[in-house]
Amino acid sequence: MADLFTVTAPLAIRFRDGHRQVMVERLPYRDGLLYLPPFWTDLEFGEALHFVPGPIKGGGPWKVGDAVVTVLGCHGTDAGLADAFSCWQARLMELAEDYPQRVLIEKLMKTHAAGVAGPVDCHPAFDTRKR
Predict the structure, then answer these.
(1) Would 33 be classed as within a structural domain?
(2) Which of 54, 56, 58, 36 is closest to 45 using CA atoms?
(3) Is the pTM above the cut of 0.90?
(4) Do 16 and 67 contact (CB within 8 A), yes or no?
(5) Rounded Cα gap, residues 125 and 123, in angstroms
């Protein structure tokens, strides 16, 4: 079984409503997954970052909540996603050393995570407002 966060092949995510998107960066977060789509560098970071709630199951394909993550090009190739990934690869070549290092990307993802995932639910015993 492959680990979703160490596999190096390009990945696509499909949501319950049928919407699909390429994931170019990903990170586990709480009980789910944070990811960035192609051309995230052209957007405000908080707008580009996505959170998919739910436990991560499987070894490829993977299920994250109601979404399914597959290797791009497998199980019914999507020409639109393949084209998006190809264009992203061309952009990466243009960016070269200007593309942020993985450590910085992870830091940015963690910093902005609460904005897209919402606040962490605390146990009622630790809620100081009820005193």
Answers:
(1) yes
(2) 36
(3) no
(4) yes
(5) 5
Query: Strand pairing partners for 26?
Result: 35
- In this structure, is residue 1 part of a structural domain? no
Quick one: pLDDT at residue 126?
45
Residue 2: CB partners within 8 Å, gap ≥ 6? Answer: 59, 60
Question: How many domains, the chain?
Answer: 1
pLDDT at residue 1, rounded to an integer = 58
The boundaries of the domain holding residue 42 are: 11-116
Q: Which residue ranges of the chain lie beneath pLDDT 70?
A: 1, 74-77, 119-131
Q: Which residues contact 82 (CB under 8 A, 6 or more apart)?
A: 72, 73
In-domain check, residue 54: yes
Q: How many CA atoms lie within 13 A of 115 on its CB side?
A: 12
